[in-house]
Amino acid sequence: MNAYERGTGFLLARLGSLTARSWTAFLAAHDLTQGQYAVLVTLAEHGPQGQRRLAGLVAVDARNIVAVLDALAGRGLVERRPDEADRRRRTVALTERGKALVTAVADAAAEEQDGFLRALDQAERAQLNLLLRRLYASHVDGPA
Prior knowledge:
- By secondary structure, the protein is mainly alpha-helical.
- The chain has 6 helices and 3 strands; from the N terminus they run ααβααββαα.
- It has helices spanning about 10-30, 35-45, 50-55, 65-75, 95-115, 120-140; strands at about 50, 80, 90-95.
- Strands 1-3-2 form a 3-stranded antiparallel sheet.
- The longest helix is centred in the first third of the chain and has 22 residues, at about 10-30.
């Protein structure tokens, strides 16, 4: 291992690149993009949402979420329906097919993660996750 390969910045960048490539390929194998997966998981976690609120939850511009929703609706994974409180708004919800896909992909993702982290035991994985979350929060949320 070269000296530069031992640096934390290099290791984080390189592992980030490997993880991103692996994750993109994993999603593609399930015929999903990152944006589509984010919408499906968010709907599974939060239930039906208005399009604007959903866009905020997945951090996508409200104008850009329409194409994502169109693709998911075209596959029968989500449905849009009038909001019961305000008929001018549209609510997006997972279909049964969408719920089944989220479950299947989540299970497969857990297996994929196990493969990626195979060099670490469970305690090391938990410690790594804790450290990464702390580091992430310090840059996104500010000092704790």
